[in-house]
């Protein structure tokens, strides 16, 4: 028998056990490692996939700043391309309160450290802002990454801010509206306020002029400093369109000057002047006394913020007789030599009385003489040959009672009640411009129609809007409408040539070298109680030149003059403005003598 070696069996037993133990530990370690890896993988998937969008947004939100890129508002131009309204570069000065602190800079080669208050004081000095307001904006919420310090500073102020080198201050490009000619055409151009377009063409054509804002983002580091090259455009800005008007700004300036001088000389409440190009109805000047300066709106009375030539209706008076005469001739009911026996007053069977402006013995006047002397009585005798319905329809065709095609903000329709509602007196007074109301531009349109051979062109203040991509919109109609025959229109223009040498403008110095056809008007002013205000009038002169080849119409009106109340008081302004128009456009002088139609029979 082989002897047994002591411990051998025990040693093998223990060796096998050790091996099993090591395997268990390795297995457990593997399981633990696998579990840990699995946890990390799950977490990684959760971070990189499940929560990626949210985490990215949070990260970007902490480092990425979004800013507005302004789409510049378009320009408004006069007929010759001169800028009436423009957008200029400005900057909003913003900051990150979270990083706001004092800063160190070099002054004369030496390092100088400023406190936050001293830094804010420097910003206020550079921008013209209020130091206390800025300091409050920077310290109210120290966790904020954005606050506005000063809005709309100019380029010089921007350069001063940049020169300070404050890393937590961020100038952002902005824009502002400016009007280079100030009050010139301010009544027409209008203005833009903090709430957007407020008046005039700025308001009417806001969709044309308004730009579309874009946006861009940039990133900044932990210290709040903008990272170079990190700016990304997220939405492209689009500039607004360019509005081309029919206004001649140089002429507009002269007309406004002349008008304001005469308003002062007459002690009038207000005045208007309208200049129309006969061939196409373009308004080349529309002036109102006391025109608003869009650069300083607060300095203007609220009643002068728009254009009274469009918004204020008035009884035009005797200038309407030209329209009545044209209607009669067109209907075959009168000629320039039609006769009437004319006393200075006329009393009707229904009890009412009308009268001429001045006493005169009974006269034998032709239609030409009635217009020249502006006889209410005379026009009533010839005008009654036409029915109320016919005259009403002619007035409608001339544009009375309906706002013009310009459709200016706040434009009035005028007043033209249905003829079936006229009383017996109104049936006669409408022949000479009472019991009916029109705006200055409507009245000017009557004379454009007569000057244009009886074809009424739609009045226009705007040529077109050109969008940033070159598209042309808002082009007005160029189609005219025949109102009366060419003969009727020409006959009236010929008759109105008598007004200056022989009629109500006798004594006005003629415009050298030009034949002028004109008509005066004097109308009482209705009061709040429905009765006429004693001694208060609207006086006017409307004229056409050259009479034999009409190119331009000029109308001037003055409301409630105090020093001189007859229509002749409007003559100096009319003459001056018409002279300037003819000179501005280098209109060829007349080469034919004045038309001489007999005033009496």
From TrEMBL:
<keyword id="KW-0472">Membrane</keyword>
<comment type="similarity">
    <text>Belongs to the transpeptidase family.</text>
</comment>
<dbReference type="InterPro" id="IPR005311">
    <property type="entry name" value="PBP_dimer"/>
</dbReference>
<dbReference type="InterPro" id="IPR012338">
    <property type="entry name" value="Beta-lactam/transpept-like"/>
</dbReference>
<feature type="domain" description="Penicillin-binding protein transpeptidase">
    <location>
        <begin position="271"/>
        <end position="578"/>
    </location>
</feature>
<feature type="domain" description="Penicillin-binding protein dimerisation">
    <location>
        <begin position="70"/>
        <end position="224"/>
    </location>
</feature>
<dbReference type="InterPro" id="IPR001460">
    <property type="entry name" value="PCN-bd_Tpept"/>
</dbReference>
<dbReference type="InterPro" id="IPR036138">
    <property type="entry name" value="PBP_dimer_sf"/>
</dbReference>
<feature type="transmembrane region" description="Helical">
    <location>
        <begin position="26"/>
        <end position="45"/>
    </location>
</feature>
<dbReference type="Pfam" id="PF00905">
    <property type="entry name" value="Transpeptidase"/>
</dbReference>
<keyword id="KW-1133">Transmembrane helix</keyword>
<keyword id="KW-0812">Transmembrane</keyword>
<dbReference type="InterPro" id="IPR050515">
    <property type="entry name" value="Beta-lactam/transpept"/>
</dbReference>
<dbReference type="Pfam" id="PF03717">
    <property type="entry name" value="PBP_dimer"/>
</dbReference>
<protein>
    <submittedName>
        <fullName>Penicillin-binding protein 2</fullName>
    </submittedName>
</protein>
């Amino acid at each position: 028998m082989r002897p047994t070696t002591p411990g051998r069996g025990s040693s093998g037993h223990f060796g096998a056990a050790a091996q099993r133990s090591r395997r268990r530990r390795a297995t457990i370690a593997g399981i633990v490692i696998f579990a840990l890896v699995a946890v990390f993988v799950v977490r990684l998937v959760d971070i990189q996939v499940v929560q990626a969008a949210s985490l990215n947004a949070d990260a970007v939100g902490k480092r990425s700043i979004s800013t507005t890129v302004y789409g510049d508002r378009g320009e408004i131009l006069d007929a010759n391309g001169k800028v009436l309204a423009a957008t200029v570069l400005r900057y909003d000065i913003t900051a990150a309160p979270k990083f706001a602190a004092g800063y160190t800079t070099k002054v004369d080669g030496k390092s100088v450290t400023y406190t936050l208050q001293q830094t804010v004081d420097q910003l206020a000095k550079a921008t013209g802002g209020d130091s206390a307001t800025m300091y409050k904006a920077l310290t109210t919420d120290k966790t904020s990454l954005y606050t506005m310090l000063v809005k709309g500073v100019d380029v010089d102020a921007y350069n001063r801010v940049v020169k300070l080198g404050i890393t937590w201050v961020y100038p952002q490009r902005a824009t502002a509206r400016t009007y280079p000619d100030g009050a010139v055409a301010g009544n027409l151009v209008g203005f833009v306020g903090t709430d957007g377009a407020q008046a005039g063409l700025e308001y009417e054509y806001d969709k044309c002029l308004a730009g579309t804002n874009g946006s861009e983002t940039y990133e900044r580091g932990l210290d709040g400093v903008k990272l170079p090259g990190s700016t990304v455009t997220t939405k492209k800005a689009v500039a607004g369109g360019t509005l081309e008007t029919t206004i001649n700004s140089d002429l507009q300036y002269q007309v406004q000057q002349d008008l304001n001088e005469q308003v002062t000389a007459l002690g009038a409440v207000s005045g208007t002047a309208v200049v129309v190009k006969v061939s196409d109805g373009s308004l080349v000047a529309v002036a109102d006394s006391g025109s608003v300066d869009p650069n300083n709106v607060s300095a203007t009375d609220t009643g002068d913020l728009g254009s009274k030539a469009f918004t204020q209706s008035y009884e035009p008076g005797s200038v309407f007789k030209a329209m009545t005469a044209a209607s009669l001739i067109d209907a075959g009911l009168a000629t320039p030599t039609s006769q009437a026996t004319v006393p200075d007053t006329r009393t009707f069977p229904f009890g009412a009385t009308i009268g001429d402006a001045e006493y005169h013995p009974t006269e034998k006047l032709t239609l030409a003489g009635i217009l020249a002397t502006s006889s209410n009585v005379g026009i009533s005798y010839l005008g009654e040959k036409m029915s109320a319905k016919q005259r009403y329809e002619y007035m409608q065709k001339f544009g009375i009672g309906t706002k013009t095609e310009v459709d200016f903000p706040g434009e009035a329709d005028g007043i033209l009640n249905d003829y079936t509602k006229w009383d017996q007196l109104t049936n006669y007074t409408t022949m000479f411009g009472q019991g009916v109301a029109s705006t200055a531009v409507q009245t000017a349109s009557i004379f454009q129609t007569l000057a244009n051979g009886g074809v009424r062109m739609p009045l226009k203040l705007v040529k077109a809007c050109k969008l940033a991509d070159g598209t042309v919109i808002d082009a007005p109609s160029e189609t005219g409408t025949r109102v009366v025959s060419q003969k009727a229109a020409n006959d009236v223009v010929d008759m109105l040539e008598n007004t200056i040498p022989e009629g109500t403008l006798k004594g006005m110095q003629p415009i050298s070298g030009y034949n002028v056809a004109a008509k005066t008007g004097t109308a009482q002013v209705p009061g709040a109680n429905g009765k006429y205000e004693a001694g208060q009038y609207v006086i006017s002169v409307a004229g056409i030149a050259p009479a034999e080849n009409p190119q331009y119409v000029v109308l001037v009106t003055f409301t409630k003059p105090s020093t001189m109340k007859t229509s002749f008081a409007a003559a100096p302004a009319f003459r001056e403005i018409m002279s300037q128009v003819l000179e501005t456009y280098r209109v060829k002088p007349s080469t034919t003598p004045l038309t001489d139609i007999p005033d009496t029979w």
